[in-house]
């Protein structure tokens, strides 16, 4: 899910009458071929094969050489491919043809936005310069779009979200702009763009661990757009966070992941829901989800390893009834208690519980990882390092171990170290949405 795009936003263009306008005499309808290009581009974003979309765009421009719609549609194809120079060449022509159109400025801003987020070079200094110039150009276009069309609230949403992308902290400073965008979009009744505004504000709240506010905004987004996958997935993440949510609600998280799977099936979502089923002790459902994940992604490491752990146990041999004994603490119960204590920032209690976990199960890598997190949060980095190394030695290919350490460094303000850990997660699990989201929250893009 997690890791920040304009999910589900339908872009509608209102062009002024002029020689560059295609469609009706009022200039308010797109050339049909431009609509078809946009649809082909959306389809190609999944397969990454843009040949058909580009062919449609070329044909559309050939038939409508003065159409701003056609230029913008081809620009979107180029931008989706990563050909930003070609995309901006078309977008610049569109702006020159309709200089008073807020929509065209907005669309060019989206291309600059994409360039700012997706420029990575071996020469990092050069890449930073390009990203800075592209982001400043995007801000300028979004501002101009709002100046030309004060109802263009989505431009303010995207601008503010791009600012967040390059931030490592201080997300509360973005709230006034999100509030203003929500006010603008509420007045004009654009429910899908309004849903996205709530989603992005909720995202900022979640980065500050303002869980109740985040959940409220994600819920508002879902009410406006019941198919908003991003809102369901991030709400599930907040509900299930073992670190920062003392009101953790596993059942609510499962319900949200179920909706995400219905809308957009993916191995990542299945493994997330499976882990929650495991936590609840529902082995059958966890196994079913891990198997579903492998059906979609046969080499999914998490699904493979967890299924191996959940392999069926031999049928018990019938014995004479015995007097039941009171339940004894288990490594799993101590681990669960330690995670609960972490969510309440009771680090001393967590260290004790996780130590008890390791006393009963000395090869429990997660208990080492979480205890290391607690040690680090208490300021004992040496102890944290020892526990992390023990966890890695036991499970070197488990992404969650590096994610936990990355979260510790994030909380301690050690941005460089946090980035390194989240990148280790992505090397093991390239589609890990939580690591992608964490990197974006630190102002860098996943490689």
Structural notes for this entry:
The chain is mainly alpha-helical and 447 residues long. It contains 22 helices and no strands. It has four domains: 9-149, Serine Threonine Protein Phosphatase 5, Tetratricopeptide repeat (Alpha Horseshoe), CATH 1.25.40.10; 168-249, Alpha Horseshoe (Serine Threonine Protein Phosphatase 5, Tetratricopeptide repeat); 272-309, no CATH class; 331-441, Tetratricopeptide repeat domain (Serine Threonine Protein Phosphatase 5, Tetratricopeptide repeat, Alpha Horseshoe).
CATH architecture of the largest domain: Alpha Horseshoe
CATH class of the largest domain: Mainly Alpha
Helix content: 55-70%
Low-confidence segments = 1-28
Structural domain tally: 4
Q: Provide the β-strand percentage band.
A: under 5%
Rg over CA atoms, rounded to whole Å, is 25 Å
> What is the end-to-end distance?
17 Å
Question: Which fold name fills CATH's third level, the topology of the largest domain?
Answer: Serine Threonine Protein Phosphatase 5, Tetratricopeptide repeat
Q: What is the number of E strands? A: 0
The mean pLDDT is: 84
Largest sheet descriptor: none
Please name the fourth-level CATH homologous superfamily of the largest domain. Tetratricopeptide repeat domain
So how many helices?
22
The H-and-E topology, N to C, reads as HHHHHHHHHHHHHHHHHHHHHH
| SS content category | mainly alpha
Shape designation? elongated
């Amino acid at each position: 899910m997690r890791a920040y795009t304009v999910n589900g936003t339908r872009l509608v263009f209102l062009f002024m009458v002029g020689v560059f306008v295609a469609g009706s005499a009022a200039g308010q309808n797109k050339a049909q071929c431009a609509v078809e290009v946009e649809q082909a581009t959306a389809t190609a974003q999944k397969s990454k094969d843009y040949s058909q979309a580009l062919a449609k765009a070329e044909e559309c421009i050939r038939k409508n050489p003065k159409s701003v719609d056609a230029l913008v549609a081809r620009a979107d194809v180029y931008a989706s491919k990563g050909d930003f120079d070609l995309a901006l060449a078309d977008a610049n022509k569109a702006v020159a043809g309709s200089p008073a159109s807020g929509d065209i400025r907005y669309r060019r801003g989206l291309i600059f936005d994409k360039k700012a987020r997706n420029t990575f070079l071996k020469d990092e200094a050069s890449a930073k310069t390009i990203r800075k110039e592209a982001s400043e150009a995007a801000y300028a276009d979004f501002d101009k779009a709002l100046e030309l069309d004060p109802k263009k609230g989505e431009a303010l949403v995207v601008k503010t979200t791009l600012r967040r992308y390059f931030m490592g902290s201080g997300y509360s400073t973005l709230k006034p702009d999100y509030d203003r965008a929500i006010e603008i979009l509420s007045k004009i009744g654009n429910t899908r763009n309004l849903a996205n505004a709530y989603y992005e504000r909720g995202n900022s709240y979640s980065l500050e661990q303002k869980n109740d506010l985040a959940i409220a905004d994600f819920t508002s987004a879902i009410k406006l757009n019941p198919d908003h996958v991003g809102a369901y997935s991030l709400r599930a993440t907040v509900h299930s966070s073992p670190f920062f949510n003392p009101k953790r609600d596993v059942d609510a998280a499962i319900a949200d992941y179920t909706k995400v799977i219905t809308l957009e099936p993916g191995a990542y979502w299945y493994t997330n829901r499976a882990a929650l089923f495991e936590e609840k002790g529902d082995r059958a459902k966890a196994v079913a989800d891990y198997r579903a994940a492998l059906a979609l992604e046969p080499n999914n490491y998490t699904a493979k390893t967890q299924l191996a752990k959940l392999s069926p146990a031999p049928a018990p041999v019938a014995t004479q009834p015995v007097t039941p004994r009171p339940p004894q603490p288990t490594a799993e119960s101590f681990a669960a208690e330690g995670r609960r204590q972490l969510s309440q920032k009771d680090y001393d209690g967590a260290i004790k519980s996780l130590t008890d976990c390791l006393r009963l199960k000395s090869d429990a890598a997660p208990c080492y990882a979480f205890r290391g997190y607690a040690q680090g949060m208490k300021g004992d980095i040496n102890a944290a390092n020892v526990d992390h190394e023990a966890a890695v030695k036991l499970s070197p290919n488990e992404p969650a171990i590096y994610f936990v350490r990355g979260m510790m460094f994030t909380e301690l303000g050690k941005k460089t170290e946090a980035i390194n850990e989240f990148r280790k997660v992505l090397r093991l699990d390239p589609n890990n949405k939580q690591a992608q989201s964490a990197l974006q929250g630190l102002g860098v893009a996943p490689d």
